Amino acid sequence: MLSTRSLLSAPALLIQWSPCNGREFNTTISLQCGTLPVPLDYTQPDPGKSFHLEIVKIPAPVQPSRGSIQLNFGGPGSPTRADAVVLGPLLQQGTGKSIPFICTDDSYYIGQILSQVRSGNDSDNALRRLWERAKADNYICQRLGKGNDTAEFIGTAFVARDLISVVDALGEDGMLRYWGFSYGTTLGATVAVMFPERVDKVILDGVQNPHDYYHSPADFEEWTDTDKVFSYYFTSCVEAGPEKCALAALNKTAAALEQDVWDFFDNIRAAPIAVGSDVLDLVGLKGFVIEQLKVSAAWSSLSQLLLALIYGSERELFLEKLANALSAGSPGGPANIIPVQSLWGIHCGDTIPRAKSFDEAVIAANKLSKISRLIGDVVTWNMAHCNQWPWHAKETYMGNFHVKTKNPILIASNSRDAHTPLKSALNVSSGFEGSGLLEVNGTGHAALNVPSVCSFKAMVAYWVNGTLPSAGSVCEAPHPFDGFTWADVFQEAIGSNLTRLAQRQGVFRRWLH
Ligand SMILES: *[C@@H]1O[C@H](CO)[C@@H](O)[C@H](O)[C@H]1NC(C)=O
Ligand SMILES: *[C@@H]1O[C@H](CO)[C@@H](O)[C@H](O)[C@H]1NC(C)=O
Ligand SMILES: *[C@@H]1O[C@H](CO)[C@@H](O)[C@H](O)[C@H]1NC(C)=O
Ligand SMILES: *[C@@H]1O[C@H](CO)[C@@H](O)[C@H](O)[C@H]1NC(C)=O
Ligand SMILES: *[C@@H]1O[C@H](CO)[C@@H](O)[C@H](O)[C@H]1NC(C)=O
Ligand SMILES: *[C@@H]1O[C@H](CO)[C@@H](O)[C@H](O)[C@H]1NC(C)=O
Ligand SMILES: *[C@@H]1O[C@H](CO)[C@@H](O)[C@H](O)[C@H]1NC(C)=O
Ligand SMILES: *[C@@H]1O[C@H](CO)[C@@H](O)[C@H](O)[C@H]1NC(C)=O
Prior knowledge:
It holds the Pfam family Abhydrolase_4. The protein has 21 helices and twelve strands.
């Protein structure tokens, strides 16, 4: 084990903040930026080899503040700094940092990588092809690109140490306040278990099973409820009626609507469609649908899109819209090439077991497809990269996530989450002695995606007073097609008109992974 104490007892360098509106971010809230040098390699700290964390702070509206909250929105590797700024008005406080990892910035190689994003079940040889393509992508990263520079140094254990370095350099009380979503919950569980004495307040929302994250050859448990949420989409659509869910106008049962979509997936597999400069294929369409399933605010527009695509009304118009959305935000879209590479860099480096052969990978791919028919064949792409990844993180937390933190952490989950199931939240909460569980009976990826007065109050009570929800209590949430927003929550909970700010919750759709 590392001697973290010597590192931490050194007199902390304080971050120097300066205003940075307009420089990088276009927002009217006042921002402060600063940088902090941290060791590139915590196992062999060498002052000559440091890594500069770039941090942006959104000052609390009420001063003096009760301390900074560090944020991580998941991915891993999504641009936290930008997320924090866009979401600042909602969360109103916190710091974010960037984790640079790119394999290559050569447009030819990027084109090669992206042109081959496929479903593992696209055709008879799809999985094999995907496996070999991943090998080639990793070759680009290691032999032709920049992977060697940082790949070993960006693992979650080092980032956990960075969070503590930031705590020290804030010059507050030396205690950690952290709010993590999705992958950010793995980071949060890791920092809390590595530094239990430093925990003041930590919320983990939209929880990954961190055992699975480090020790499985693929993310199995994450997709436990994906198909259930997909079915629930149609059930709640029929309940909501045609005003709120366009598909309901067809007067079909939920099961019949769902079957139509499955049949359409089969059509697209056999006959992909050119839209603009892209080809809409199975992986593109499924990837898009899954992204929408994570955010119930997007459910109504998803129903219009499916109606158009499958049943033909205004089909061309919607195809064009879909093409734009895909190239802007799909897993393979140009906008996402950096997060995708960061995900490989962080998650693949953290993954301990690697399939020794293609045959072993086939077993994992089949298991993924069994867990979720909707996403299993889509995520084989990442699995193929991670299983052949050339690097291991220099440090990995190897314990069992059982700990008693100095102050209890709060774990939040929706009852129906297509990406991080309630099951994983229960798993983590059983390891963190004294932790609280906030279950929201809503649908979406992370409680932050489900506007609820009850969960808002519970989170405020935790941040302000450290109060945990009483055991077994479940927050009610609006029906997913109701169009209830955080603006309504603020209005109801604190009588404050934050409509304009809360309208920005639309960004969750884009950023919360
Ligand atoms: C900055 O944001 C404002 C308000 O959202 C917008 O009108 C303006 O076009 C943006 N400017 C840039 C340079 O993005
Ligand atoms: C990265 O390291 C590997 C293994 O040491 C080496 O084979 C490869 O050439 C290096 N890549 C570059 C671009 O130097
Ligand atoms: C669905 O049912 C409503 C009410 O019975 C009817 O007005 C409408 O025409 C039906 N729509 C279709 C597509 O069958
Ligand atoms: C693979 O595709 C076939 C149709 O070509 C389908 O019947 C099967 O269910 C799919 N398997 C998985 C695991 O998605
Ligand atoms: C948590 O998940 C891990 C990995 O799936 C499993 O081994 C462990 O038994 C689970 N713990 C509990 C309490 O369910
Ligand atoms: C949770 O929500 C579902 C779906 O809206 C509803 O059927 C169920 O009764 C709710 N459960 C509780 C305990 O309120
Ligand atoms: C925090 O506790 C104080 C004292 O008990 C109470 O007055 C206040 O309402 C609590 N604040 C929140 C947000 O729960
Ligand atoms: C809140 O502000 C918005 C935008 O300025 C306005 O349209 C809305 O009527 C206001 N709502 C209330 C309840 O005052």
